[in-house]
Amino acid sequence: xxxxxxxxxxxxxxxxxxxxxxxxxxxxxxxxxxxxxxxxxxxxxxxxxxxxxxxxxxxxxxxxxxxxxxxxxxxxxxxxxxxxxxxxxxxxxxxxxxxxxxxxxxxxxxxxxxxxxxxxxxxxxxxxxxxxxxxxxxxxxxxxxxxxxxxxxxxxxxxxxxxxxxxxxxxxxxxxxxxxxxxxxxxxxxxxxxxxxxxxxxxxxxxxxxxxxxxxxxxxxxxxxxxxxxxxxxxxxxxxxxxxxxxxxxxxxxxxxxxxxxxxxxxxxxxxxxxxxxxxxxxxxxxxxxxxxxxxxxxxxxxxxxxxxxxxxxxxxxxxxxxxxxxxxxxxxxxxxxxxxxxxxxxxxxxxxxxxxxxxxxxxxxxxxxxxxxxxxxx
Amino acid sequence: xxxxxxxxxxxxxxxxxxxxxxxxxxxxxxxxxxxxxxxxxxxxxxxxxxxxxxxxxxxxxxxxxxxxxxxxxxxxxxxxxxxxxxxxxxxxxxxxxxxxxxxxxxxxxxxxxxxxxxxxxxxxxxxxxxxxxxxxxxxxxxxxxxxxxxxxxxxxxxxxxxxxxxxxxxxxxxxxxxxxxxxxxxxxxxxxxxxxxxxxxxxxxxxxxxxxxxxxxxxxxxxxxxxxxxxxxxxxxxxxxxxxxxxxxxxxxxxxxxxxxxxxxxxxxxxxxxxxxxxxxxxxxxxxxxxxxxxxxxxxxxxxxxxxxxxxxxxxxxxxxxxxxxxxxxxxxxxxxxxxxxxxxxxxxxxxxxxxxxxxxxxxxxxxxxxxxxxxxxx
Lengths: 379, 379
Known about the structure:
The structure is a homodimer.
Chain A: H1 13-22, H2 31-44, E1 48-52, H3 55-65, E2 73-77, H4 82-89, E3 94-98, H5 112-115, E4 120-123, H6 135-145, E5 148-152, E6 160-162, E7 168-170, E8 177-181, E9 194-198, H7 204-211, H8 217-221, H9 241-252, H10 254-272, E10 280-281, E11 297-300, H11 303-315, H12 343-351, E12 352-354, H13 363-374
Parallel strand pairs in A: 2-3, 2-4, 4-5, 5-8
Antiparallel strand pairs in A: 1-9, 6-7, 8-9, 10-11, 11-12
Helix pairs in contact in A: 1-9, 2-9, 3-4, 3-7, 10-13
């Protein structure tokens, strides 16, 4: 049986967890939380990082920091995970869903401007499969219309964008705020987990308060105020040191993990670039984007072909899975959606299939997946 | 140095974490999550339990389930942790703060009725130090005025209330909903962590949806629907299997931990029941309440005496700490508060001090704490 995903343990996770417990501090914002945050700040150009219990929570923090409130509109791709929209819905926003690109499941940057109104407060690009959206286009719209950009970088750790200025910037370091995920399906993991990155320093102080239940506890422990209390809204967004210690063991091996994943991805790409008896498209990576080997997917011709492909793989003990369903057609949002058709989004909902992708996937297993897929699945 | 708190490791935590990783599933709602939830459901009479990333998150789920919205009022004690109020503030509620009892820091049950208006939606009693509020009084008000009761049972694991009917019920099993904490300072821990208990089955199905980002994923995996999607509001409230595996090791030792904590508490109580040269009150436990030995506190005569006591303990390498500050006087809420004086709450804010209390606290250390406190601290 080849699973779709298999969490990878570096071996140090439980050692660091025991160390955290022995230090007498396993609630949030301790030694390992700081180590993780400092690593990301030092290596990826994020101005300030705060670990969270999930990427959803990081997006909620971003929505609060942008002061999103009822009456505001937020532009979000419809082909994304529920949380991208939900975090802003919880603040009362109306979601204006954008279609995907023809060549990539990410947001179609060229239609964003047509969706901007006087009520628009933020744009939330999602770097699908860790492949960059065209951030120059998005940031220039944000400048022009005075909007916030929140990067949903859930899948985008260690991935980059090279803009017109020729500078290669880490995804998550470009928007005003960004959110990462360390869910077990991601490149580095802590089971559930996430991170908010703050690139616009206007948000830094307030982010720390919102993170710790609306209290100025962090300032208190730095000796900046002489007692701490309730000063703002917020929630308990911070993860335990158990979670952070686990993540630290993964971070230490990030480059090792990335090298392996990239080799797996390249192997897939090379095999699938050969002619087959099936029609499907391979992942497209624009020149401005890097590939962090988060995911290997195919885009089938239609829903029937995809269903047959998934079933054929399953018959061969290989688990491949489809991905998002158009959020604008969801039970929760369809009546609130403005009625625009989003055909590309619907196409990826019907036709995209993700192949097994994890650190321990062997060359033989990749070959097996290829052998099953290369032969016809649909008459 | 005697710390105020020291997390206790049973020794099985990292073994279960490794087991979770080896099973290939460390995101939420896996084997250990279910084991923990089933334990609490079987042993404490909670109808349905859902682990959460924090008690704050469990309270937020309760606020969403009660459909709390702008215009609603929620009655909350002012002497409590920020989250008790904040979770309802996030849904737009106005908080109506209640004073504490004269004999106990918990909510004064006898004034609750005077605070109920046509806008009141819920009452949120906090079982301070794990000692029950008078739930008969509170539940009969809820019946009379058709209100929801959300028990903030953050400190109240394995503690009980015996009502007029003579039945001994677990705290957290009496209100419509209740929230527990497994923060490192609690009797059993997972670093950060919490649990929502649902006693009114009308909430069960929706709770599961809200817990998993507003999706009907749980129903899908039980085969009750043939695909899952976005059907409601919610967030990522569920903890990882890493967190749940840690908690399971604690739960297995719950009775062992409780026996030890109760012995520590009794030792404190016996020592401090002797005459001293200082005036302070000891914890009061009403006949209807059990004692889960979560906390040992003293109530000093005034702020000066408490400050001197804390300082004297500190000079002797003993860490004792004060607790909450009146939320109705917080920077965030004072202008929104209706202006009522809450003198008992202010008194506990000024006068209550918590002594070191943790599993590994020795008899000798307890004796040392007593020796420092028995002699005068204030002229």
